[in-house]
Design brief:
The structure is a single chain. 59% of the residues lie in helices and 12% in strands. It is of the alpha+beta class. It has a four-stranded antiparallel sheet, covered by helices on one side. The chain has a two-stranded antiparallel sheet with strand order 5-6. Helix 1 packs antiparallel against helix 3 and helix 3 runs antiparallel to helix 4. The chain starts with a helix and ends with a strand.
């Protein structure tokens, strides 16, 4: 049995229905009134019927609990994997910054010794650009891009994403609910680009932390089973260079699917990977 919140609610409803049916049969108004005296009023056949029903529900609940425990273990494993990936990513970024700064500082020292004013200005600019790039990368890590969310009330005056942001924000919150990311905090959101009647602009959403972004991206697959958001998909906030590299990976994955559709293909860690279809 696979665990899901919907299945948990369904089991709860069945249990409550059986308890209500039992209370009605012995003519009591509260659960606390169910005791040996009131239950003794039942005939043998109805008693067996209720007993079988409760045993079946108990077995179902036990299976559900085991599935929940398995899901929790799997989630823990995924969280640990994600944390390790984040740590490695941050270490790589820090290493790049360190190398860049060391290189530029060495160049700066060489220029200072030569007393070349023009080269000093260029080297200082390079250091500032390196620091700026790291800062922008940190900001992007907290953003997520939402594609496919239409806004029927948009007008041509809404070219900066100023109007209808409240509606977009509510839509993003609904997406968080569907993906079971209720603790994710939305800091801000805005439409990207100029409004066009034949184009749906994506929404850039800023979350509180980069961990919130990773969590939402991991659970984005739940949107496919949602009637309201089945056509919506999420992506990280990538640079133009990263988007170009991603498009190449997507194109390569499509080619692999055409060659061999028996496998499930996906992109992870900037590589196309695959597993056997279940």
């Amino acid at each position: 049995m696979d665990f899901s919140v919907e299945l948990l609610h369904s089991t709860e409803k069945k249990l409550n229905a059986e308890i209500s049916r039992l209370m009605k049969a012995v003519k009591v108004s509260t659960v606390s009134d169910l005791n040996s005296n009131t239950l003794g009023k039942l005939q043998k056949a109805p008693s067996n019927d209720f007993l079988n029903a409760f045993v079946a529900l108990l077995e179902s609940n036990m299976s559900l609990c085991k599935a929940a425990a398995s899901s929790i273990d799997e989630m823990k494993s995924k969280v640990l994997d994600t944390q390790n990936q984040l740590i490695h990513r941050q270490q790589d970024e820090l290493a790049k910054v360190k190398d860049t700064v060391q290189t530029e500082m060495k160049s700066w020292a060489d220029v200072a010794r030569k007393n070349d004013k023009q080269n000093r200005q260029l080297t200082a600019k390079s250091v500032k650009e390196a620091v700026k790039a790291v800062s922008e990368e940190e900001e992007r890590s907290k953003n997520i891009i939402v594609y496919g969310v239409t806004d029927e009330e948009e007008t041509e005056t809404d070219w900066e994403g100023v109007l209808n942001i409240d509606k977009a924000s509510e839509t993003v919150k609904s997406i968080c609910e569907v993906t079971d990311c209720l603790n994710v905090e939305v800091q801000s959101c805005s439409r990207i680009g100029m409004w066009k009647s034949d184009k749906i602009r994506p929404i850039k959403v800023q979350l509180r932390t980069s961990s919130d972004v990773d969590l939402l991206l991991r659970r984005a697959c739940k949107l496919k089973s949602s009637e309201e958001f089945s056509g919506v998909y999420l992506a990280p906030d990538r640079t133009p260079e990263q988007r170009a590299a991603r498009n190449k990976l997507v194109q390569h994955m499509k080619e692999l699917i055409i060659k061999d559709s028996s496998k499930h293909y996906f992109i992870r860690d900037d590589k196309v990977r695959y597993t056997d279809k279940k």
